[in-house]
Amino acid sequence: MKSYSEIREMAVQRHGEDGLAAALPPPPDVPLRDLSDDRLLSEFSRRVFQAGFNWSVIDKKWPNFETAFHGFDIGRNALMSDDDLDAHLKNTDIVRHAGKILSIRDNAAFLSDLAREHGSAATYLGNWPVEDTVGLFDLLKKRGTRLGGMTGQYALRFAGYDALILSKSVVAALNMAGVLDGAATSKSAQRKAQEAFNTWHEESGDRYAVISRTLALSVPD
């Protein structure tokens, strides 16, 4: 397996020191563990609606979503009725996708359950060990709705968790580095990726988000 310093040097060769530095993600303004649960539901829901859609359109409409879904209060949305769903499907101020609207209800129930179990869903998820991020991905896939795959990974990152991202470029870099031989969809492949990230984190002290971006920049676009 290539060392992180080798991978970083490849990224520098492609983009230069200044280019690499400019492309690295800054630390989150608010870490996930400090979010309120309604803000976490809002973030999860935004990423669900952006999946397969134009992100900027969703961003522009998001204030309308905040109004329609009562500030993403988890208790209220967990009790979304059929009449509520019908009203949402008639609301031209939002994107009217029944399955994704229902995911708000389901994920509100999921976060409500976590809050009952642990006091705060955001604190519980935010304190999940970064050394087992793929375990957190698995939790979102199993207990959440439409939070598997890249949607859950980006949702965690945008919510302020130091998540690794198994994007196409990152997976290509993991193959180049000798960590993987193919896709990163199986649990065993994701575990290998996690172990490599843990090693590189110990080597460099860099955040997992920075390691992800450095990997992505080490391979051709």
From TrEMBL:
InterPro entries: Adenine_glyco, DNA-3mA_glycosylase, DNA_glycosylase. Pfam families: Adenine_glyco. GO terms for molecular function: DNA-3-methyladenine glycosylase activity. It comes from the Bacteria. This is DNA-3-methyladenine glycosylase I. GO terms for biological process: base-excision repair. Gene3D superfamilies: Hypothetical protein, domain 2. PANTHER family: BLR0857 PROTEIN, DNA-3-METHYLADENINE GLYCOSYLASE 1.
